[in-house]
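_Backbone structure tokens_
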Amino acid sequence: MTATRTASDRFTVFPPAEAPGRVCPLRYRYGPTAIAHAESRVTDTLYVVGGLYGNLAALDTIEMMARTDRPVGAPPPVLCFNGDFNWFNVEDRAFAEINLRVLANDAILGNVEAELDAPADDAGCGCAYPASVDAGVVERSNRIHARLKATARRHADLLERIARLPMLTRYRVGDCRVGVVHGDAESLAGWRFDVNALDDPAQEAWRANMFEVAAVDLFASTHTCLPALRRFHLPSGRSGGIVNNGAAGMPNFTGDLTGLCTRIATTPSPHPALHEVRLGGAWVALLPVHFDSGRWQQEFLAQWPPGSPAWLSYFERITRGPSFSPRQALSPAVPDARR
């Protein structure tokens, strides 16, 4: 995740510095074969929630959205939290509530969670920030994570449950095979599902190979903290999609204080969508998460007052949004399937 990175930043696959916060630990690597071999859970409606960042107001809203997304007689939607559901929640009550509620659903590790029980701090926050991210941002992220890690150690039962989470999971929604990851198809902290990488022609061969080896039609990710939805024509003749919800618990666009989550279902979304496309028999949507921003800012400041590392890195984004637009997030080549 990153506090200040925008789509104009240069994409870097492997940051050159092996410093805490920039290094990608070998234990984060799984590869597309692991995705292909993962057991599939079948559901008609799947919500993928990445980057909650300890925002209880956003969690309230997402749970409400899922409760109201259920036709009569249909099973409830599956919620999958694909990492970084912790971050700003350093108070004991907030840490416990976020994790108890998230772990009642499907969840996988993000780099934030993966480093909570790490015996050493050599990876820092585990973000594997690219070289384009300012060193001050990296240093502050490491300090944020150190404080969160101290809180987690006071909750041994929750920390043990978090440590047992997988790094990836797999679903089938209609005929759509979905691989849910935190970073990309190779690594928990990979950046190749970042919006810049998705539009980089040099990544086409790698991406096509990932779809084939992972045996999926859709990848759902988060990690880079900026959203993207892209559809690709693959050499096999099938269509493939990649959706990155950016952040469920923070603003994603300039002047827009809502979060985003991903919905994948056999029916169109009953909630207004930023964008929704058809991929085989599934509808894939980025849904705005209209949480109470005033409440969230108050809860954030109670834990991270002015001048603190998180306030310096994130408060401007929390109150104004990042320098990013919906047009940058959405591929102009993919029309809205509902029009």
User: Anything to note?
Assistant: The first strand starts at residue 40 and ends at 42.
